[in-house]
Design brief:
protease, NLP_P60_dom, endopeptidase fold (from Nostoc punctiforme), about 280 residues, globular, cysteine-type peptidase activity, mainly beta, thiol protease, hydrolase, 25 strands, SH3 type barrels
Length: about 280
């Protein structure tokens, strides 16, 4: 089993896993949700960042020790460690998510009131009342037009990805403040209700239908929304000639002619396109 999505460590093991506990405590897991704008999901306590979790993200806690919780994210089943202070017990379910690149939560339904926090696209909130311009949420007042009911997903992953243009590249990032190639694809797909894992090699195996590559360096049958994969990289086609991707060359989310990108990536020694996949919504 993929350790990135297996809720087991040297202390605990999830009860639903058909694995030998080998001295570990068998646990059922406890639901919780992220209560801070952005939280790093670490490979081990104080270890490297693997992904990020945004406000309102649902997780299952499988263990807690020395201020760290071992959790599994509901959206992509990725496991890792977050500070226990970044978690809260869910009360009423979240109802809306941020649908713009970013927004602010305010102390009152007034743009001149004190801002309480900045929220990235896909942050999830519980709306308690709707005004003419602001929604009252469990984290403050948010501009009404910056929110979308969770029950109404987007329909165009490319349009979602375009919201992140100019976002700085950040390895393991999942927010408007920093994002990587697979994080961009994941944000676009999840916003459209498409289940999407967190890493590009997982996405290459699991997203959409495989389109044969043919004998050319650049696939001939490229459409808006198609995914192109290289070893360790993924891009989303904006149109048949242009792709959008978070990449270390621009150190940002950028548009790039696909032919130029193929040539540049090959010249860097990172090889040819490995897969062309198509997700049908």
């Amino acid at each position: 089993m993929d350790p990135r999505r297996t809720p087991a460590n040297d202390r605990v093991i999830a009860a639903h896993l058909a694995l030998d506990p080998d001295g570990r405590q068998i646990v059922g897991g406890q639901p919780a949700q992220i209560c801070l704008p952005v939280v790093n999901l670490l490979r081990r306590p104080d270890g490297p960042r693997d992904r990020q979790l945004l406000l309102g993200a649902e997780v299952t806690i499988y263990g807690a020790h020395d201020g760290w919780a071992f959790v599994q994210a509901a959206a992509d089943r990725y496991v890792g460690y977050v500070p226990t202070s970044s978690l809260e017990q869910p009360t009423d379910p979240v109802t809306h998510q941020v649908c713009t690149a970013a927004t602010h939560a305010y102390s009152a339904a007034d743009m001149k009131s004190a801002d309480l926090c900045s929220l990235s696209h896909s942050s999830r909130l519980r709306v308690s009342s709707l005004g003419s311009k602001f929604a009252e949420t469990n984290h403050g007042y948010v501009p009404l037009h910056h929110l979308r009911p969770i029950s109404q997903p987007d329909r165009d992953p490319v349009a979602v990805a375009q919201l992140f243009l100019g976002t700085p590249y950040l390895w393991g990032g999942n927010s408007r403040w920093g994002i990587d190639c697979s994080g961009l694809v994941q944000a676009a797909m999840l916003a459209c209700g498409v289940a999407c894992p967190g890493d590009s090699n997982q996405q290459e195996r699991e997203l959409g239908d495989n389109i044969p590559l043919g004998n050319t360096a650049v696939p001939s049958d490229l459409r808006r929304g198609d995914l192109l994969f290289w070893k360790g990289h993924v891009a989303l086609m904006q149109d048949p000639e242009t792709m959008i991707h978070a990449n270390a060359y621009h150190m940002a989310v950028a548009l790039e002619p696909v032919a130029d990108a193929v040539e540049r990536i090959m010249s860097q020694g990172d090889g040819p396109i490995t897969s062309h996949r198509r997700v049908i919504l």
